[in-house]
Amino acid sequence: MEQVVYVVDDDQGMLDSTVWLLESVGLKALPFISGREFLDACEPSLNACVLLDIRMPGMGGLNVQEAMRARGIDLPVIFVSGHADVPIVVRAFKAGACDFIEKPYNEQILLDSVQQALGRHGEHRSDSRGQEAVQARLDALTPRERDVLLPLVQGYTNREIAEQLEISVKTVDLYRMRVMKRMQAERHADLVGMAIAAGLVDPLNLRAQAGGQPGRVRLPADGEVGR
User: In what order do the strands lie in the sheet with 99-102?
Assistant: First the structure.
């Protein structure tokens, strides 16, 4: 996804030079002369960050940051200011700012801060989408498939699951294959990871298998689950 930097600064000269700097390294920069203009145009779904001036007429940077939070705009914010006194810096960071850069800024420091903010935001978005996809697959499982899933990821063999559910080993094996397919898991370890990520099981309380050492969990390999 294209990376975007919102640049909000009431100083037109500083706004233009910052946009030029960002575009010179291949980033898309969207300039705004006021906080309200930015808030009206902001797209929270973009892979973006915000370069935000602290002191602006009408609506200052800290007020813009508060308005973003109130509107559910979860984009990383980097403050840029020529008047960086300690209380303002502390307030900005407590409100969730990624960085605070003084004007006149060092170009490389600014670019590094922007790239780090975009990278962290991209990772966060990717993790969120992955968790949503896993939850959607879990929600699509039938009750019996979920009955098999839980002991399976806890480390029980097909035979033990069959005894717990009072069904045949062959039936468990059939459900196991269906669960693996519907969860899009290539290996048993993938299935365990999805269950842990979804909060279905506690990774510290997975069942230790025969041959494992006390205090350590050995998950069954795919070939030995049915034994």
Answer: 28-32, 3-8, 47-53, 77-81, 99-102
Residue with tokens 């969730």: 96
Segments in 54-142 forming alpha helices (H): 61-70, 86-94, 107-140
Q: What is the mean pLDDT of residues 68-91?
A: 83
Burial of 146 (0-12, 13-18, 19+ CB in 10 A): middle
| CA dist., res. 67 & res. 86, Å (int) | 22
Instruction: Tell me the per-residue pLDDT of 16-34, one tens digit each, with 9 for 90 and over.
Output: 999 999 999 999 999 999 9
Are 220 and 188 in contact, with CB atoms under 8 Å apart? Answer: yes
Please state, in angstroms and rounded to a whole number, the distance separating the CA atoms of residues 36 and 71.
13
Q: Does the model's pTM come out above 0.70?
A: no
- The 10 Å CB-count burial string (b at 16+, else e) for 85-106 is eeebbeebeeeebbbbbebebe
3-state DSSP helix/strand/coil percent for the chain, to nearest 5? 55, 10, 35
Cβ-based neighbours of 217, under 8 Å, separated by 6 or more: 155, 206, 207, 208, 209
